[in-house]
Amino acid sequence: MSQKVVTGVDGREWIVSLKIMWTDKSEGFEHEKEGGRRAVIGIIVVLGLLVFAQVAWAFQVPAVETPWWVLLILAAIVLFFPVRWALRRPRRLRVEGGRWPDDDDGGRAEEWSGFVRGRTESRAEFKQAIKTLQKRGTPARANSPLQPQ
Q1: CA gyration radius for the chain?
Q2: For the segment 1-53, what is each residue's pLDDT rounded down to a tens digit?
Q3: Whole-prediction pTM
Q4: I need a labelling partner for 10 at 20 to 30 A (CA). Which of 41, 60, 100, 124 fits?
Q5: What angle do CA 95, 97, 100 make, to 5 degrees?
Q6: Contacts for 100-107 with beta carbons within 8 Å, 24 or more apart?
Q7: Phi-psi map region of 28: left, alpha, beta (phi>0 left; psi -120 to 50 alpha)
């Protein structure tokens, strides 16, 4: 979780945070448009058959040595999907605060939040929210995923 306290151009303090969401139960979030469970099961079966064939080949023909690049390709294929899944998890971008420094009446602070998919995109939105607060005093901008709560 990344968190940063930012002072806006108008003197208000905001807390900008970014948190990874391990469950995809976010409201109104567009899910990935991929093949679904059957495609995942098919990929796992094919990868299992490839690994089984490699191991069986090594035991059947002990005189033939498996090239290192074949093992490297198999490892890359097996690790590609879990690494992609972890990097493409949605992140929740949240901006809260916005009270005036002399506001002691207990009024409700502003809260903005939105979801961004992917590590690179979420870090860019995190930095953009900070820049927008410092230049305009509000996290709102035209293409921002942030919505007032």
Answers
A1: 24
A2: 789 998 888 888 889 999 988 776 544 444 555 556 677 788 788 888 988 88
A3: 0.65
A4: 124
A5: 145
A6: 100/11, 100/12, 101/11, 101/12, 101/13
A7: left
